[in-house]
Amino acid sequence: MVACQAITKLPRAEAERLCIDIGRYAPGEGIARGGLNKVFMNIGYKLTMLRTWEEPGLTVASFALAHEYGLFLVYTERHVSALVDGDLHNAKGDWHAPVEEAYRVERRNAL
Hints:
Radius of gyration: 13 Å
Number of helices: 4
CATH architecture: Alpha-Beta Complex
Helix content: 25-40%
């Protein structure tokens, strides 16, 4: 939910409502990867999966250093962070965690 707020720049309550209504976010429990991706696609964003599996040993820190500009969702085991123009939001100590999936997020007809 924090990743949604960081990328969309929506107020927390609005980002949370979207995540609950579209992505099946459960406060205190989280949101599934597919759920968060669905939220973005439903509100007019384009997600492109990056080929992170071709970079063995890729951590959140190394991903952030290599992607200084743009919007990204960075998934680790049981967590997601938003990378917004080089600023990592809600990393929860995941700086050295391996990246499991990452998506470039592009605004199209977004809110």
